[in-house]
């Protein structure tokens, strides 16, 4: 398995002097995800929890809906033999074998299938695509969470981000129950990857749909992250930064509670405020 951090020399410059010293950086490497041998996407990620990442990605793109839809997930062999003459695992290519009754994904599925402005998909079509493909929408989830619990979550996420503390270069995603207990925390150079890893964890533990949970992300609430919460059946998505307009539209149409600017003792609740109680 690849390393999460790497050491590099750096010139640290201040007004008084310049000092050469080692610095700890987060590792960024490509991961190619294949389905039944067919390459589907390549994402730049921080090594670790790769199997969760692959399964979370396939669930949030609508390829799978439950743990039973996946038979195996394996690292692929490389093309270069090692000292024993056997090709070793590359740890940068994963092949997911689907159950026989699961339809293979469209070859056009990519990391930016719904989200990139250059892909030619307008906002309305993006919203409709999620509505059509989601099997675990959160609209009927009766869960509530107190405002006091929500305001306590960012500090819990920060305390759990061990690699961020060493590098300052990682996004975090954490899954909580509505009482504020941590269920899973994952870090990654890509905010979407961190969320996919958390959802992949839930899939591995047979917890999809994720009713009665809160997903907290360390940055902004984009359309892509909102899509992932909807696809996993998460009723509350909270972000420490701003949401986008399309994220709010998707949350509103899907019955997701979207909380943003979650800082200190305040927050903005953009949709389904009935789930946030005093």
UniProtKB/TrEMBL annotation:
Q: Which GO terms describe its molecular function?
A: sulfur carrier activity; sulfurtransferase activity
- Could you tell me the keywords of this UniProt record? Cytoplasm, Molybdenum cofactor biosynthesis, Transferase
Residue ranges of coiled coil: none
| Subcellular localization(s) per the UniProt record | Cytoplasm
The GO cellular component terms are: cytoplasm
What biological-process terms (Gene Ontology) are attached? Mo-molybdopterin cofactor biosynthetic process
Instruction: Please name the catalytic residues of this protein.
Output: 119 (cysteine persulfide intermediate)
Q: Name one Pfam family in it.
A: FdhD-NarQ
Q: Which domain of life is it from?
A: Bacteria
State the function annotated in the UniProt record.
Required for formate dehydrogenase (FDH) activity. Acts as a sulfur carrier protein that transfers sulfur from IscS to the molybdenum cofactor prior to its insertion into FDH.
**PANTHER family reported in the protein's UniProt record:** FORMATE DEHYDROGENASE, SULFUR CARRIER PROTEIN FDHD
Q: Which family does it belong to?
A: Belongs to the FdhD family.
What NCBIfam families does this protein's entry cite?
fdhD_narQ, PRK00724.1-2
The protein's name in its UniProt record: Sulfur carrier protein FdhD
